[in-house]
Task: structure prediction
Amino acid sequence: MKILIHWLISAIAIIISAYFLKGVHVDGFMTALIIAIVLGAINGFIRPILVFLTLPITIVTLGLFLLVLNTLLIMLVAAIIPSFTLDGFWWALIFGIVLTFVNTILQSIFKSKI
Result:
C-alpha cells in the first residue's frame, strides 16, 4: 500500500513540476504515472550502477556530477516515453531539481497523514 501511495505522490509531483516549468511537457496524469514508474525503475536499477562507474568523476567534482547523472536519466525517461518531452538539457536539470524539491514536500505532508 505504501508503494502505491509513494507512486501517486511522485506522479503528482511530476505534474506540479511540469506545470511550473515551460520547457517540460507532460500530456496528462496517466503519463505522469508512467513517468513515475519508469523513473523509479531506472533510479532503482540503472542509477546505482552508473553512480558506481562514475565515482571518480563524482569525487573530483565534489558530488556535482550526480546532478548531471540525474539529468541524463531524466532525459532517458523522456526518450522512452513519447508523451513526455523536454526542451533540452537545462530544462531536464531544472526539472530534476524542482521534482526533488516538490516530491520531498509532498512526501513529508502525506507521511504524517498515513
Observations:
- The radius of gyration is 14 Å.
- The chain has one domain: 2-113.
